[in-house]
């Protein structure tokens, strides 16, 4: 073998890896490198996923999308993150380090646009456009802003949207979601998120080597999701929220004939357009008190005590007990809210005046087990089934764990109810015993407006109470408002029946805050609304005054509500 053969073989062997590499690149890795090559010049700008509308029972818009502009970046195109952060920090009112951290975060796809800031103002838009040459890799992208016309008044119902978290992304990618997409975090937005969510559109653009956009290559239209129509009456919702004002508490209004939720509010609350600043607040603005607030029912539970005592024969409407203001049992002294007592009282007067001594003795004759059994028959101690997330079951304890019949009879001890349960209880009394599952969604429609599902009244069970007992109880509820502890709930032109409640038994000794409540239905001859007003702080007379204002403004919108309802406030009573 001459030296030329050796040289040829040497060259062949030396070129073999090169040829192999070329074959690999051209054949086996062609598609991957072609993708990368195109990725250097073609960008797909994905749009926000449009959401369907949320409407009230009369077609009034409660939530809808509106056009806005977001500030985004493409990691691959970003040349100088530190300089971009310096430029953007003042106009975005964000910290330089916060922006830099956000735009340098590791991402699986360096060509995928990511959101830096949502809903740019006109001033911010102009600033970014004017500095676009220095902001390489930063883009203004048309986006969607969720608009809530009623603002904080409907937050407890609608909830809010939040970005998909890093932990959620692996699972939600299967549903077509990307980093930066918004999903429902609470309320109807969360409960019906998959139905409200539509189909994403996008724009394909060509960019130069520095990441500047050259031309639009193609577009795909977005398609909105389903429309959700609620049972809510937006006018009543606004009235209820306004009358609750800045007080901590909740108001729930139901239709006693169908179980539909007409209004539901919880305070304190937060701005659904910008929930982030409220995350660190200590007053629990994200707690939906209507569904998850647990309260001792106080004298509202005397509705159950009355039914259990009358149905079991432990008392009759004419039985009288003497109230001297207190009752001594062993080493414990049991107080009535009226320190000098009510004297001799029968059922109707005792119920109207919310006499603790009368009901304490009636409860002891009835027994702990009977009281708890009737509470469960009334649907208490379990979730109502309202189609909003986060509902609590409350607590109806087992016999032996309740604190005894004396405590139970006036709604103290280990009892805990939610405002929705209290509203459902008075609605059940108003309609004669039907325990409805509260409904807040009336129907669903597709993007073309076609009805795809309708939700009707759903009776969960029946609370059997004899006609005699029911009539006796209703007379007592009417007397509460006409001549008893609920007089502040009177509304001219409307007949109201209800029951006051105040909890916190240690108030007299320790001067702790009382929690006032009032449940009612109206008009009494043909009930149209059943309502629970529950305050975190305040007496029952304050709750009754709020009730009066709501009823007057709802039933007589043309009449201006007076101010006399708020005058009879007593913070030291247990009614």
Considering the protein shown, what is the CATH homologous superfamily of the largest domain?
DD-peptidase/beta-lactamase superfamily
Query: Could you say what the CATH architecture of the largest domain is?
Result: 3-Layer(aba) Sandwich
Secondary structure tally, helices: 20
| Share of residues in strands | 15-25%
Looking at the structure, the CATH topology of the largest domain is: Beta-lactamase
Distance between the termini: 116 Å
Low-confidence stretches: 505-510, 561-575
Q: What does the main sheet amount to?
A: 7 strands, mixed
Helix share of residues? 25-40%
Bulk shape: elongated
CATH class categorisation of the largest domain: Alpha Beta
Q: Indicate the radius of gyration in whole angstroms.
A: 32 Å
Derived from helix and strand composition plus strand pairing, the structural class reads alpha+beta
How many β-strands, per DSSP? 23
List the helices and strands and how they pair.
Layout: H1 3-28, H2 30-41, E1 42-46, E2 54-55, E3 61-73, H3 81-92, H4 96-103, E4 114-117, H5 122-130, E5 138-147, H6 155-158, E6 161-163, H7 169-172, E7 182-184, H8 187-191, H9 193-196, E8 202-207, E9 213-220, E10 227-230, H10 234-244, E11 249-254, E12 261-267, H11 289-292, H12 302-312, E13 321-323, E14 326-329, E15 332-335, E16 343-345, H13 347-352, H14 356-366, H15 368-377, H16 405-409, H17 419-431, E17 434-436, E18 441-445, E19 451-454, E20 459-462, H18 467-483, E21 497-503, H19 507-510, E22 515-522, E23 529-535, H20 540-555
Parallel strand pairs: 2-10
Antiparallel strand pairs: 1-8, 2-3, 3-4, 3-5, 6-7, 8-9, 10-18, 11-12, 11-23, 13-16, 14-15, 17-20, 18-19, 21-22, 22-23
């Amino acid at each position: 073998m001459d030296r030329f053969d050796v040289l040829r073989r040497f060259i062949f062997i030396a070129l073999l890896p090169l040829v192999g590499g070329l074959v690999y690149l051209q054949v086996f890795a062609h598609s991957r490198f072609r993708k990368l090559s195109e990725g250097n010049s073609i960008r797909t700008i994905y749009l926000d996923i449009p959401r369907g509308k949320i409407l009230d029972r009369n077609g009034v818009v409660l939530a809808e999308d509106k056009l806005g502009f977001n500030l985004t970046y493409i990691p691959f195109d970003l040349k100088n993150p530190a300089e971009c952060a310096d430029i953007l920090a003042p106009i975005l009112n964000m910290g330089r380090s916060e922006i830099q951290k956000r735009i340098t975060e590791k991402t699986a796809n360096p060509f995928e646009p990511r959101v830096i800031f949502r809903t740019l103002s006109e001033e911010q838009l102009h600033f970014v456009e004017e500095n676009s040459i220095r902001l390489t890799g930063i883009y203004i992208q048309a986006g969607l802003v969720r608009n809530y016309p009623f603002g904080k008044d409907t937050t407890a119902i609608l909830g809010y949207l939040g970005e998909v978290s890093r932990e959620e992304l692996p699972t939600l990618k299967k549903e077509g979601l990307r980093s930066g997409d918004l999903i429902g975090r609470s309320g109807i937005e969360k409960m019906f998120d998959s139905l409200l969510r539509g189909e994403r559109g996008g724009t394909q653009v060509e960019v130069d080597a520095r990441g500047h956009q050259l031309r639009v290559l193609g577009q795909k239209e977005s398609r909105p999701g389903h429309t959700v129509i609620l049972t809510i009456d937006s006018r009543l919702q606004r009235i209820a929220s306004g009358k609750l004002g800045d007080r901590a508490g909740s108001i729930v209004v139901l239709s006693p004939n169908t179980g539909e939720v007409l209004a539901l509010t919880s305070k304190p609350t937060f701005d659904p357009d910008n929930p982030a600043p409220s995350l660190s607040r200590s007053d629990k603005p994200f707690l939906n008190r209507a569904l998850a607030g647990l309260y001792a029912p106080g004298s509202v539970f005397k509705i159950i005590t009355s039914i259990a005592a009358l149905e079991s024969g432990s008392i009759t409407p004419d039985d009288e007990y003497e109230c001297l203001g207190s009752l001594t049992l062993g080493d414990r002294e049991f107080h009535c809210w009226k320190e000098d007592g009510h004297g001799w009282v029968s059922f109707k007067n005792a119920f109207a005046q919310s006499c603790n001594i009368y009901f304490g003795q009636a409860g002891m004759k009835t027994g702990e087990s009977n009281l708890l059994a009737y509470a469960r028959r009334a649907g208490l101690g379990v979730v109502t089934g309202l189609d909003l997330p986060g509902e609590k079951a409350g607590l109806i304890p087992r016999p032996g764990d309740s604190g005894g019949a004396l405590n139970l009879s006036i709604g103290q001890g280990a009892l805990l109810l939610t405002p929705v349960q209290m509203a459902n209880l008075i609605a059940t009394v108003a309609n004669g015993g039907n325990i409805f599952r509260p409904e807040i969604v009336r129907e669903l429609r597709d993007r073309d407006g076609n009805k795809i599902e309708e939700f009707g009244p759903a009776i969960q069970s029946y609370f059997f109470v004899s006609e005699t007992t029911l009539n006796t109880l209703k007379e007592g509820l009417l007397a509460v408002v006409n001549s008893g502890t609920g007089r502040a709930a009177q509304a001219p032109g409307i007949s109201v029946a209800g029951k006051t409640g105040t909890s916190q038994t240690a108030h007299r000794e320790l001067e702790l805050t009382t929690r006032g409540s009032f449940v009612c239905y109206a008009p009494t001859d043909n009930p149209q609304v059943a309502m629970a007003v529950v305050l975190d702080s305040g007496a029952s007379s304050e709750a009754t005054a709020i009730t009066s204002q709501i009823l007057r403004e709802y039933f007589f919108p043309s009449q201006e509500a007076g101010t006399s309802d708020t005058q009879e406030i007593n913070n030291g009573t247990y009614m």
